[in-house]
Structures are given as C-alpha cells and as structure tokens.
Amino acid sequence: EVQLLESGGGLAEPGGSLRLSCTASGFTFARYPMSWVRQTPGKALEWVSTICAGRGTESYADSVKGRFTITRDEAKNTLSLEFNSLKIEDTAMYYCSKDVKKVGTVVTATQRGQGTKVTVSL
C-alpha cells in the first residue's frame, strides 16, 4: 500500500522560510518522479514542483521558481520542499504525490498524503 506522510507545515511570515518533508513507503521510491502540489479552499489543485527519479531533474511552477527547492533522499525515501521568500499567496495545504498528471491547466494527484498546512501571514 502506497503511503505518503507530509510534515513540516506551520505559520510563517511573508519573506520567511519553511521546510516540508514527505516520507514515502509501499513502493520503490527511487523509481518514481515525485511532486508537490497545493490547494486552497474552493480552488483547484495547483502543481508546485516535480523532481525526477535518477538524475533528479527539477521543475517548478513559475509562481514558485527561484523561491522553492525540491529535493529527494532515496536512502531515506524522503521528499522535501524548502520555501524561501514566502508570500501570502503561498498559503495552502501542501501534498506530496507520486502520480501527478497535468492536462492543460487541470492537475490531478490521486496518490497523495493527507497534506500539511502552510499559512503565511503577518
């Protein structure tokens, strides 16, 4: 059974930093690209970042490029997302996922954890 457990969310001020982690089990972590997505109430799921298996090529949404960094540790089956220069609009529930699909602007992520909440506020 695939299990993904996110942690590390919390409250931060604009301009601040946070680090999220996701511990994976139930599948061969090293073989899969892994992603972070986020969602705010009433809005569609938004893709944030993906890191490929193997060479670990990273990609980011334009809204977070240059501020967020995705990494993976295959020895620990852990995915991380480091936030810098947080903005109020980064406030969302963040999920890690092993099966993110994007068709146009529609993002799906059926295998994801319970999420961890990030609130950016003064």
According to DSSP, the number of beta strands is: 12
* Series of H and E elements: EEEEEEEEEEEE
For the terminal residues, how far apart are their CA atoms? 40 Å
> Which parts are unreliable, with pLDDT below 50 for 5 consecutive residues or more?
none
Q: Overall mean pLDDT score?
A: 95
Please estimate the helix content.
Answer: under 10%
* SSE class: mainly beta
Strand content: over 45%
Overall radius of gyration = 13 Å
Main β-sheet description: 6 strands, mixed
Side by side, the strands of the main sheet go 2-12-9-4-5-6
So what's the overall shape? globular
| H/I helix tally | 0
What does this structure look like?
The chain is mainly β. Helix content is 0%, strand content 49%. The chain contains no helices and 12 strands. The N and C termini lie far apart (40 Å).
Brief characterization of the structure:
With 122 residues, the protein is an all-beta fold. It has strands at residues 3-7, 10-12, 18-25, 34-39, 46-51, 58-60, 68-73, 78-83, 92-97, 101-103, 106-108, 116-120.
